[in-house]
Structure formats: C-alpha cells, structure tokens
Amino acid sequence: MNDFTLQSIAADLVPSNYLSVANNARVSRDKQVKVLLEKKKLPEHGWENGTIEYLIDGLALLDSNNFPSRCGVGEREARVVCELVRKRHYGFAHGIGRSGNLTEAQPKAAGSTIMANLTNCLVLDLLREMGIRSCKKALLVPLATGMSVMMVLTALKVSRPEARYVLWSRIDQKSCFKSIVTAGLIPVVIDTVPVEERGDPLLGTNVQAFRDKVEELGAAN
C-alpha cells in the first residue's frame, strides 16, 4: 500500500477517518524504513517484528522470481517449488553476488542486493559501536565453525607468513583440527589437564604446556 493506492479506496469500503488513522501508522513505518536505508546504521530502538517483516517482504518483491508477470529463462533463475521453503526464506531465492564476487550487485535480485549491502553496513556500524573504530568495511557471510577458523588463520598467515604452527588445546571436535590443516598450517596438539571448578572435575587448558611449547618452537613460528 502507498499513498496513491490508499487514495483510490472507495468510501464504502472503509470510513475515511478510520483509513486516515491506519495510514498514519503506515507512514510511521515507512519513515523507519526510509531512515534505515538512508543512514545505513542500527536504529536507536529495536523494531517490532511487523516492521521487520514489512521491510523484508518489500525487498523480496524486488527480486525477479517474485515479479507478478515475468518468468525469466536463464542459467540462474530462482525457482521455489515448496511453499514451506519460500516462507522460510521470505521469498528470497536468488542469493547474492555475481561471478564469484559476493559484493557484486545481482541484476536479477535488486532486493537481495539491497539486503546484503544493508546488512554489511549494519554489521560495520555495530563493530564501530563496540569500539573498533578503525574498521572500514564488513562482510557478513554464513560460515560454520571450521570454515570461520580457517579464514581467520589464513588472514593471520598473510601478516605472519613465516609462522607454521598452531597450538591447539585438545577437544573432541574435528572442525578446528581440519581448519588448521586446510589453512596449510601444522597443528600442535596440547592435551588438556584436570581442573576443578565449583567442586566439579573438568578438563581445562594446560597454560604452562602452551608457554613451554611457544618457547620450544619460537614465538615467530
């Protein structure tokens, strides 16, 4: 609904004074969306679910798979067969990026592109509010534990190309171990030691073993 549509509503459908009150609420919601898209910063006050879905639904309608009178044919045409899947993803189906570049605009998905870029702006604003003022850009992508750790290690390798080892406090979780190997580094496993916390026996990091191993291998490695 917009001003043009509301003005065309016949009086026998709803009294004009009732419609005016309802329209004021819509205008207020539109103003919130407008400010968010213009400033690209986190709102001072959190939005209620209806406003969030109002924005998301509006953006989804900008993607070509949701156009009412168009059915494109090409190598990357979004199609959703299951209605449950469509609802789960609010009608988004195209994804983001183009030709392997996640930050490129997707010509068939203006809504998805706006959503992705806006999300990155909000994450950047959050990081700066947390005190990381020097941060200039942010990119939010869905990654599980192993891939996240691997990307962090790969980034550290760029700043410390001579380093080869990663000290790992042993836990029964394979993702961390795999991420070290995938990053082209050598895992050095350090067994945990029994500790007691609040009367309960637990396993904890062997800090002294870490110190000894750093001295043995060399801090630069």
The helix-and-strand class reads mainly alpha
Helix content: 40-55%
Unreliable sequence segments: none
Beta-strand residue percentage = 5-15%
Main sheet overview: 2 strands, parallel
Order of H and E elements: HHHHHHEHEEEH
Average pLDDT figure: 89
How are strands sequenced across the largest beta sheet? 1-2
Q: Tally the helices: what do you get?
A: 8
What Rg do the Cα atoms give? Answer: 26 Å
How far the N terminus sits from the C terminus, by CA atoms, comes to 62 Å
Extended strand count: 4
Function: Converts O-phosphoseryl-tRNA(Sec) to selenocysteinyl-tRNA(Sec) required for selenoprotein biosynthesis.
EC number: 2.9.1.2
Cofactor: pyridoxal 5'-phosphate
Family: Belongs to the SepSecS family.
Task: Walk me through the structure.
There is one protein chain. With 221 residues, the protein is mainly α. The protein contains eight helices and four strands. The chain has helices spanning 3-7, 16-39, 49-60, 83-88, 110-129, 145-159, 174-182, 207-217, and strands at 165-169, 186-190, 193-197, 200-204. Strand 3 and strand 4 form a beta hairpin. It is elongated, with a radius of gyration of 26 Å. The model has no long low-confidence stretch (mean pLDDT 89). It is an enzyme of class 2 (transferase).
